[in-house]
Amino acid sequence: MDRAKQFGWLVALSLLIFSSTAGADWSAINMREGVTEISRQVYELHMIIFAICVVIGILVFGTMIVSMLMHRKSIGAKPASYHDNTRVEILWTIIPIIILVAMAIPATTTLNAMYDSGEPDIDIEVRGFQWKWQYTYLSDDPTQEVKFMSSLLTPADEIYNRQNKREQYLLDVDNPLVIPINKRVRFLVTSQDVIHSFWVPDFAIKKDAIPGFVHETWAVVEEPGIYRGQCAELCGKDHGFMPIVVRAVEQDQYDAWIEEKRAEAEAVYEIVGKEWTMDELMAEGERVYLRTCATCHQANGQGIPPAFPSLVGQGISVGPMDAHIDIVLNGKSGTAMQAFSAQLNAAELAAVITYERNAWGNNVGDMIQPREINEMSGGQ
Amino acid sequence: MSAVIEEHHHDDHHHGPDKGIMRWVLTTNHKDIGTLYLWFSFTMFLIGGMMALVIRSELFQPGLQIVEPEFFNQMTTMHGLVMVFGAVMPAFVGLANWLVPMMIGAPDMALPRMNNYSFWILPFAFAMMLSTLFMEGGGPNFGWTFYAPLSTDYAPPSVTFFIFAIHLAGISSIMGSINVIVTILNLRAPGMTLMKMPLFVWTWLITAYLLIAVMPVLAGVVTMMLMDIHFGTAFFNAGGGGDPVLFQHIFWFFGHPEVYIMILPAFGVVSAIIPTFARKRLFGYASMVYATASIAFLSFIVWAHHMFTVGIPIAGELYFMYATMLIAVPTGVKVFNWVATMWQGAMTFETPMLFAIAFVILFTIGGFSGLMLAIVPADFQYHDTYFVVAHFHYVLVPGSVFSIMAAVYYWLPKWTGNMYDETLGKTHFWLSFIGVNLTFFPQHFTGLAGMPRRIPDYALQFADYNMISSVGAFLFGFSQLLFLFIVIKTIRGGKKATERVWEGAHGLEWTIPSPPPYHTFSTPPKNMEEAHG
Amino acid sequence: MEDKQADAAKTVRKLLLVVALMFGFGFAMVPLYDVICDITGLNGKTAGQYTPAGELVANKERVIKIQFLTSNNAGMPWEFRPAKRVLEVHPGEMNQIDFFARNPAEETMTAQAIPSVTPFYASRYLHKTECFCFDQQQLASGEAIDMPMRFIIDSQIPDDITTLTLSYTLFDITDQLDKQLAAN
Predict the structure, then answer these.
(1) What is the pLDDT, as a whole number, of residue A4?
(2) Up-side HSE of residue B20: CA atoms within 13 Å toward CB?
């Protein structure tokens, strides 16, 4: 092919690529700068190393391209006969070492900053579950602690394309983590079952959640906003469906929020004490079931046998109530069935058990009161 | 053992291959076994490729359209296992079988009977592994790195079959590499000193040592899994005094050298092809050998760079970061040597050369992203995202796989006696080249923008690049059918190849007829000047 | 030719030895890892029972805040909590805290508590003289227990450590014990 024509194509193509990205939002294709001192350092580090790689790439690939154009047999090139040159070989061993040292210095500085152990203002225990997160705001006084589960808000209809996907598709949760800005927040990351990984890109923190062990990481967020991340370590079926949402707010908003959460916990205490009707239990039960149980046992109760058995017309949900309660509260070891007494309050547990016994044509007809559940699980 | 070795020394020169299927079942001939390995590998490449296309189809758009998350996880897991243990590794063993004896002037591999066993274990291993997909509870769904406890306490029942399949594949690899080492150390023609061996032989010698060192460790780690699952031990269960992180340490002690097992022979292939088509001797032969050896050595002391986020003390993080960065030095030396070989040569661009040049460029891009991943603070952002997926696919697909394709085009005329169709070959190259880049380059972007790996569905901002990626994957995948067609066409006929095949080719394999007789170098060759590639 | 065969057989034997050694090395990594954990406090693992070398001298100048976290691994229904969330202690003095556990399940269960300290370089300055985590705990259905834990913070603890978090995760090992019995 005509050389000039080839060149023309090349220019046209690069212009096309350039123009398509020039006006674009870089955040779609590059690392986020984030909102912490650390995340900005990491971003800068990333850009420096990327730039060094680009320069080396241009030099090496440029040399290759020049060579391919000039040293081709078709234009009469004659091969040279040399096959080594000690001086050059030493040079291209030494120079990369110098470049690497230059890269290692800022990398070490940033890493040191990340490992700095300052006194935290707030401690939050982050616990990975299959497939949601639990956040506990630790306090010296255990009664003042706030603890809640945070799971995916995106409905199955959006995931299965029966409904339009909203903007925050797969990145929205029912209860976001709320933290104050400009405070050092320490995350104590651990897991309940398999390894998960707690990742918030805007804070440049990613820490594996390992069952049995606690690891810490921290962030000082400088700007209010909503920051989204996802579980980063394959943790089973719904690994792709356990996002992390952090809402960073001013201190006074944070204080108000935490008071509200404490009040909610109080309210649950009262709800548990009252007498519930069948309709109330079924309505609440359906809500809890769809949020908590449907990922495995499916919205129609049919499950995905054998890993997730069907609840319709067979097994514990139509058997004796005691066995049913035992499995829901205490889980079944050796299976994916978790001990939900740790995740749901007594009202939710009673409702969901009642729902499972009476939905999808199960019609066992019995029900259980939150108060009774509370007595069984030791009355927290 | 000596009875086995005797076999080939008394081979009958006039004796050709047996007829029919039993020729292949019972063969102890290195060429036949090489062919078997290569066809097995290609079959696995297509199966693993189909799994990749299932993955890419599901990821074509956000939302769940084609498969459920459980099956998606089985696909990513099996795709990885099949490609690593079924496609790339056997392909290189196949090339070693065909080429090592011809390159060092040996009549066959040193242990022909074992050679037969080591191949025939593989179909059984992979039949067992693939059959898990049809078992109750499905196949392995915990990723090809099978981290505990997802692969132990939380695994589907088929995990036991997966463990046995890994054991079998491991035994096959160990037997294959023992054979390669014994052949290279003991059967070189007189005058073929170590520093005269073609670089492909060198890289395979080092690779074989790596295999022997780490495949038993893999066997150990899956044995521990087996014991945890069935015998109540607690190697990886914190509840019994074990530690899930220990699994990762042992796995990556195997896993990182494994990465180089899949790339070192590729370096050997490219170091044979570039000098041929540049018509110039390989630049810096000795430094190539030393660089390969240093990469192999370094591969043993950098494993924890796969696990920077598990919580390692800062001293550990720094050590593994520095050690990993150091690998860039010998790798850089190799790339510079290839460029210097091309410089002031007289190049032509037949298909093998196109693949080899694409290898150098795209592997280097994979090397750059590897260097970026070594930087711990930045790795916290890259780790377990599509940036990593882009990185290792760049070193494995346009790296290892391209080098295997380059090797096939380069030596196919020698093996079959027929030239392949150059136009079709170039078409295959360009389709693959465009397909690969279309598939994997956008994954750098989605990864940096925050898309985790191993997810069946993703947030809307990743949609555009995933779509491009899927289109590229189908282009690359279907181009390989063209490859199959070209190879079959060449086997069936075509322009007759000369002994030398390529104008600039050097090495003992080019001194024998094309196709080579069933038994070659029954008397050792004399002219060692030919040895250097 | 005979020489070559003998050489080849010798090489094969050596390589098989390497294979066997490396298989063993895989298993040797298990105790090796524990040693490394002990030295570096990797994963915040704490050491076994500690016997004070001499008389304890409390450093009243310094106060270390120690947080206690408790949690249950999946499938573990026990109630499990510390008597207090936080203790403020002086390095060098003996301290005690109780942990409460109750088995609400309908069958007898055996549990093992796994400690983990963060920041993990602090773990080597935490000396436990008595801990329920040294033993397995068996509780019948409905049974409850108060489990003491006695510890000393080493007076050598670096100045930059002011807060130390000690977490216990309770694992249900009933099944595992059954498997072990079956295997034996």
Answers:
(1) 57
(2) 1
CB pairs under 8 A between A and B: 280
- Max Cα distance, chain A (Å): 96
Question: Do the Cβ atoms of B243 and C173 come within 8 Å?
Answer: no
Of all residues in chain B, the percent with pLDDT exceeding 90 is: 85
What are C128's strand-pairing partners? C151
Chains touching B, CB cut-off 8 Å, 3+ pairs: A, C
User: Could you say which DSSP state residue B499 is in?
Assistant: S
And the tokens for A331?
Answer: 């889980």
Q: In chain C, whose CA is at the least distance from the CA of A333?
A: C75
Other Cβ atoms less than 10 A from the Cβ of B17: the count is 12
Of A120, A214, A338, the CB nearest to C75: A338
Neighbours of chain C (3+ CB pairs under 8 A): A, B
H, E, C per residue of B130-147: HHHHHCCCCCCCCCCCCC
Q: Is C59 helix (H, G, I), strand (E, B) or coil?
A: coil
CB contact under 8 A, C75 and A141: no
Q: What ipTM was reported for this prediction?
A: 0.90
| Rounded CA separation A76/B347 (Å) | 10
**B440, B393 contact by CB (below 8 A):** yes
- Give the nearest chain B residue to C114 (CA atoms): B239
* CA B43 – CA B25 distance, rounded (Å): 17
Q: How far is CA B188 from CA B7, B256, B285, B529, C11, in A?
A: 18, 30, 19, 14, 14
Task: Provide the pLDDT confidence category of residue B2 given band limits of 50, 70 and 90.
Answer: very low
Give residue B13's pLDDT band: very low, low, confident or very high (50, 70, 90).
very low
Query: Between these two residues, B418 and B136, which has the higher pLDDT value?
Result: B418
pLDDT digits (tens, 9 = 90+) for C90-134: 888 888 999 999 888 888 888 899 888 888 788 888 888 888 888
Distance from A374 to chain C by nearest Cα, in Å?
12
B393 annotated active-site? no
B 217-276 residues inside an 8 A Cβ radius of C = 217-221, 223-224, 230-235, 237-241, 243, 245-246, 249-250, 253
Share of residues in chain C with pLDDT > 90 (%): 11
Tell me if C171 and B230 make a contact (CB, 8 A cut-off). Answer: no
**Can you name the residues that pair with A376 across neighbouring β-strands?**
none
* Annotation says B306 is catalytic: yes
- Please give the C-alpha separations between residue B327 and each of A34, B209, B322, B435, in angstroms, as whole numbers: 30, 19, 9, 29
Report pLDDT for A14: 59
Q: Alpha-carbon torsion B79, B83, B86, B87, what sign?
A: positive
Q: What is the 3-state secondary structure (H, E, C) of chain A?
A: CCHHHHHHHHHHHHHHHHHHHHCCCHHHCCCCCCCCHHHHHHHHHHHHHHHHHHHHHHHHHHHHHHHHHHCEHHHCCCCCCCCCCHHHHHHHHHHHHHHHHHHHHHHHHHHHHHCCCCCCCEEEEEEEECCEEEEEECCCCHHHCEEEEECECCCHHHHCCCCCCCCCCCCCECCCEEEECCCEEEEEEEECCCCEEEEEHHHCEEEEECECCCEEEEEECCCCEEEEEECCCCCCCCHHHCEEEEEEECHHHHHHHHHHHHHHHHHHHHHHHCCCCHHHHHHHHHHHHHHHHHHHHCCCCCCECCCECCCCCCHHHHCCHHHHHHHHHHCCCCCCCCCHHHCCCHHHHHHHHHHHHHCCCCCCCCCCCHHHHHHHCCCC
Which residue is closest to C33 within chain B, CA to CA? B246
Judged by average pLDDT, the poorest of A52-56, B283-287, B347-351, B528-532 is B528-532
Closest by Cβ to C12, choosing from B182, B213, B253: B182
Q: What is the mean pLDDT of residues C13-18?
A: 93
B102 token code pair: 């011809």
The answer, yes or no, to whether residue A43 has pLDDT greater than 70, is yes
